[in-house]
């Protein structure tokens, strides 16, 4: 077997510390936001935008997320989520919360 072309495994990913203009926003979504791929879409798009945080389903049918990064990127993500036809967001509540260390955007409760 040839092993010289294999990539090293388990190398830790380095994340930048929060920048001075970064924010962390707690977001609560209501509407038809479960069973429509909401968390997967948010996870994929947030990682493409290099945002940190998480998204999770709630027992009442709503979805919560924490989004951390540049506010323009967060606004863009929220706008994009509202444009997905199969997702019908009725309400978005937001609140700024303290920054945390950056890391990958995670999908919880899957």
From TrEMBL:
Active site: 39, 57
Enzyme class: hydrolase
GO molecular function: acylphosphatase activity
Any matching Pfam family: Acylphosphatase
Keyword flag rRNA-binding: no
Domain Acylphosphatase-like: 24-109
Keywords: Hydrolase
The reaction(s) this protein catalyses: an acyl phosphate + H2O = a carboxylate + phosphate + H(+)
EC number annotated for this UniProt entry: 3.6.1.7
SUPFAM superfamilies: Acylphosphatase/BLUF domain-like (SSF54975)
Family from the record: Belongs to the acylphosphatase family.
PANTHER family: ACYLPHOSPHATASE (PTHR47268)
Name of the protein this chain belongs to: acylphosphatase
């Amino acid at each position: 077997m040839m092993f010289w072309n294999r990539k090293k495994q388990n190398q830790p990913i380095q994340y930048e510390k929060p920048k001075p203009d970064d924010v962390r926003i707690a977001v609560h979504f209501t509407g038809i936001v479960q069973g429509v791929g909401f968390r997967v879409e948010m996870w994929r798009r947030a990682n493409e935008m290099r945002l940190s945080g998480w998204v999770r389903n709630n027992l009442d049918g709503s979805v919560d997320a924490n989004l951390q990064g540049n506010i323009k990127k967060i606004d863009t993500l929220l706008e994009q989520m509202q444009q997905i036809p199969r997702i019908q967001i009725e309400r978005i509540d937001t609140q700024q919360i303290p920054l945390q260390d950056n890391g990958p955007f995670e999908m919880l409760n899957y």
